[in-house]
Amino acid sequence: MRLILMGPPGAGKGTQARTVAEHFGIPAISTGDIFRANVSQGTPLGKKAEEYMDAGEYVPDEVTNLMVRARIDEPDAEPGFLLDGYPRTLAQVEELDGMIRHTGHELDAAVVLTVDPDEIVERLLRRAQVEGRADDTEEVIRRRQEVYVEQTEPLIEFYRGRGLVHEIDGMGVVEEVTKRIFDALDVVPQS
Ligand code: AP5
User: Fold this and answer.
1) pLDDT by residue (tens digit) across 86-95?
2) Which residues touch 1 (CB under 8 Å, ≥6 apart)?
3) What would the pLDDT profile of 99-140 be if each residue is shown by its tens digit?
4) CB contact at 8 A, 177 and 12
5) What 3-state DSSP class applies to 112?
6) Which of 78, 130, 171, 173 counts the most CB atoms within 10 A of its CB?
7) Whole-model pTM over 0.85
8) Is position 88 annotated as part of the catalytic site?
């Protein structure tokens, strides 16, 4: 199973990715998490990514694409993967197509979470108090939303054209949203 999980900042991608990936026995690969781990370890990749992330901008495609390619080549991703927050640009879509074609497989679905903008800001400001993520300030949240609308939202239509999009209402409690995703993917979750 090869899935991508899309949606604006704070839509619940990371939250849902873990449960969905676990169900399919595949890794949930979050580009944001990988970047953050590199930032906190002070690696060269982290140093390249940090200033973009802190400003709410996307890390350049060439950096992100190389990182995802390396992660997908790891043995645990052989049976499939769930990508959380990748692709976000047309260049990344093309790169991912190439990566998947190379393995002789296809992308199975693009799950898109939709959430009211006010709810998103509330969620992220709440998280800011708990986790203190550098990009969860009101100003940077606003910029992340703009960048998403400009660069990533158009990709949804692109995947819709391929018949891959499952648009999921991301409002409500976490478990309800998970159930909607499983229903859309036509799977029976293990309890
Ligand atoms: P990334 O970490 O992916 O951030 P994001 O897309 O802004 O998304 P978030 O992690 O904020 O939200 P989410 O949708 O995962 O929601 P979550 O489950 O956490 O990327 C960070 C940065 O890295 C980017 O800005 C960019 O700089 C760089 N980057 C990453 N990928 C890149 C790429 N492909 N190309 C270039 N640059 C890239 O939930 C949010 C909060 O809401 C949590 O506190 C959660 O507990 C809560 N919550 C979740 N679901 C619910 C619910 N149903 N009800 C109530 N609360 C909920």
Assistant:
1) 999 999 999 9
2) 24, 26, 79, 80, 82, 108
3) 999 989 999 999 999 999 989 999 999 999 999 899 999 999
4) yes
5) strand
6) 171
7) yes
8) yes
Report CA Rg, the chain.
Answer: 16
166 beta partners: 111
Which residues, at least 6 apart from 167, have a Cβ–Cβ distance to it below 8 Å?
112, 114, 156
CA–centroid distance, residue 51 to ligand 1 (Å): 17
CA quadruple 24, 30, 33, 34: dihedral positive or negative? positive
Q: Identity (one letter) of the amino acid at 182?
A: F
C-alpha to C-alpha distance for 47 and 183, rounded to whole angstroms:
41
Residue with CA at minimum distance from ligand 1 atom 56: 123
What does each C-alpha distance from 96 to 8, 45, 179, 189 come to in angstroms?
Answer: 20, 20, 27, 28
Q: Number of helices and strands (H, E) in the chain?
A: 9, 5
Give me 2's structure tokens.
């090869």
